[in-house]
Design brief:
The chain is an alpha/beta fold. The chain has helices spanning about 5, 35-50, 65-75, 85-100, 115-120, 140-145, 170-175, 225-240, 245-255, 255-275, 295-300, 315-325, 345, 355-360, 375-385, and strands spanning about 80-85, 105-110, 130-135, 150-155, 180-185, 200-205, 220-225, 280-285, 310-315, 330, 340, 365-370. It contains 15 helices and 12 strands. The protein is globular and about 75 Å long. The structure holds pyridoxal-5'-phosphate (PLP). Pyridoxal-5'-phosphate (PLP) binds near residues 88 and 219.
Length: about 375
């Protein structure tokens, strides 16, 4: 063979089964080969039916991505998962895979804004109707589910940005008794929580705590083998697949998931307690504080109260954020560094005055995402910025 040819056909170095690498390798290959056409046909047919019997094209499946999917499914206490290029790609694929013209879907005023947009605006183009509920008015939700055939309901807990705690058991019971697929966007709680509820599918943005370092995006849908298998074909034909390198980074991030998450929760509680004691802060919303309106529910259904804190300050939000040194003004959450955003301009613009009130959003609301820094430094930073 000439060198030109040889460079494109090196002998593959594959460790023996009894001599594996300690760390999951990155299969940065779009294609996988088989000896015979029939083998490839069998793999393709299995993939289309949602079965995991081999690899031929990375948009459909890839070992590094598969490793992550299985890790996530186990962490969330379910059988299987599909990974996506972003959290919202998981939501859009969920809607497109499950909803048809004439179907009805339920979202909440407290839902992540892009989820509301997809459900109310984008899916309306395809003849899907949507109603917007309030996470604290479950009587209204139950009445609607009983009288209006609803295909799918998606909710969050704790909610973004003001950290309301949904009554997960009651929502699941209402949806299930009327044959509505119940989906929990569990991003704010994290995939180690809420496994014990009768949720059909979990959504996660892996961009947040799961990867944890603010350097990679991803999403996932997690559920039973049957529900995931039924979505596989639509998922890979829609094409919002996770890249193997991103999957590797997320898998790497997961190794320290509990260390980071617990430290971030400790910081959130310390900061929330400080803020509650400071008269320059009008209100503190942290599910772990006894003063939180849903604290009892949080205590009953969560193992950890989360890494986010929302506050209403007495002064000007922009001035406060400008003075902060450690908390950086940036979108997103769950990374090792602490972040801050103004709530109204980030999350409240498409809500009416009444809807904002119901969502606990005021012009003075600020959302904090706690990192892994030393809590006394974070408290000092908040102290000087409030001054
Ligand atoms: C961030 C987020 C998403 C979307 O995830 P991306 O990775 O940014 O696409 C969905 N739901 C919730 C609750 C989120 O916080």
């Amino acid at each position: 063979m000439k060198k030109e040819t040889r460079l494109n056909h090196p002998d593959l170095v594959l460790p023996a089964a009894q001599n594996p690498p300690l760390i999951e390798p990155i299969y940065q290959s779009v294609k996988f080969t088989t000896p015979d056409v029939s083998d490839m046909e069998a793999i393709a047919a299995a993939s289309a039916a949602g079965r995991d019997e081999g690899y031929f094209y990375t948009r459909i499946s890839n070992p590094t991505v598969r490793q992550l999917e299985l890790t996530l499914a186990e962490l969330q206490g379910r059988e299987d998962a599909i990974a996506f290029a972003s959290g919202i790609a998981a939501v859009s694929t969920l809607f497109l895979a499950h909803l048809r013209a004439g179907d009805h879907v339920v979202v909440f005023k407290e839902s992540y804004r892009p989820t509301r947009y997809l459900a109310r605006d984008l899916m309306a183009r395809f003849g899907v109707t949507c109603s917007l509920h309030a996470i604290e008015k479950l009587d209204v939700l139950e009445a609607e589910l009983a009288t209006r055939k609803t295909k799918l309901l998606i909710f969050e807990s704790p909610t973004n940005p003001m950290l309301k705690i949904a009554d997960i058991a009651r929502i699941c019971a209402a949806a299930r008794s009327h044959g509505t697929l119940v989906v929990l966007d569990n991003t704010f709680a994290g995939p180690h929580q809420h496994a014990d509820f009768e949720v059909d599918l979990y959504i996660h943005s892996l961009t947040k705590f799961v990867s944890g370092h603010g350097d990679v995006m991803g999403g996932a849908i997690i559920g039973s083998k049957a529900l995931i298998a039924a979505m596989k074909r639509d998922s890979y034909e829609l094409g919002a697949c996770l890249d193997p390198h991103a999957a590797y980074l997320i898998q790497r991030g997961l190794k320290t998931y509990f260390l980071r998450y617990r430290k971030q929760c400790e910081n959130a509680l310390a900061v929330a307690r400080f803020l509650e004691s400071d008269s320059r802060v009008a209100r503190v919303y942290y599910p772990g504080l006894a003063s939180h309106p849903h604290h009892a529910r949080a205590k009953a259904q969560m193992q950890d109260f989360g890494t986010m804190v929302a506050i209403d300050i007495r002064g000007d939000v922009s001035a406060f954020i400008r003075k902060l040194k450690l908390f950086k003004l940036a979108a997103s959450l769950g990374s090792t560094d602490s972040l801050v955003v103004p709530v109204l301009s980030f999350f409240g613009r498409d809500l009416t005055e009444e809807e904002r009130k119901e969502a606990w959003i005021t012009p003075n609301s600020v959302r904090l995402s706690l990192g892994v820094e030393d809590s006394s430094d974070l408290i000092e930073d908040l102290k000087q910025a409030l001054g």
